[in-house]
Please model this.
Amino acid sequence: MNKIGIYYAYWTHEWDADFHPFIDKVADIGFDILETNAGTVARMTAEERRSLRSHADARGIALTYCIGLPHEFDIASPDATTRRKGISYLVQMAKSVGEMGGGKVGGIIYSSWPMNMPKGESDKRPYLERSIASMKEAAKAAEDNNVIFNVEVVNRFEQFLLNTCAEAVSYVGAVGSPNVKILLDTFHLNIEEDFVGEAIIRAGDSLGHLHIGENNRMPPGYGHIPWTEIGAALRQIHYTGDVVMEPFLMPGGQVGADIKVYRDLSVGLDLDEEARKALLFMRGVLK
Ligand code: MN
Model:
């Protein structure tokens, strides 16, 4: 059975947060996983990481880690110094997560976020080639620290390198590390893929992590994402991995700005109660 989790930023306006209260909250609601911010975890002291790990263990919560790399750490950049900084940052994240027993670091870890194709450019191949070369290097740290790097396929309005699952399959094939896999997200698949189920089947054994959310980033159950098709596709590829919902309802702060939440989708809703309902809904989809 898949473990089901939720991303902490559902409840926050800023990316940096104290994850301890969220461990208790998601455990009380009934989730198996709390997805945290890999950047925040990498900046913690070893003692803070130990404390987070032991709290999560005490509540029976698994931790996963997510990040969109800031521009200064873009591993696809034409600038070698920037790529070098980005590789170091990924290595630091792998070591930090490794200290906590290892696990999954996913997101836009192959370039930076949010990012358009630079003005005047129309060929993304040099960006992909640089990213693949950087990722090959960073992957060694993942392998040494029991970490899986999952490259997230996102829509064209947020990034330009990996917009479809087919592009990600080609990318992880070129990197060629068992510790570099694919993160698919139903919100992004809905925008870019012909058929969501087919995209999941195309990922197959390379699917390392799954984000779920509605077409409007509401909690699963509120929109028109084809959940029955998704459940069938996941069963077809025998996906036993983690499934993490990533709803964003609140405008405001850096989270609201980056996610482009320009209207309050939470009006009249109790966020904890909605998370509970979405969890029950997904247990039905994934059964
Ligand atoms: Mn996502």
In short: Residues 152, 185, 211, 246 surround manganese (II) ion (CB under 6 Å).
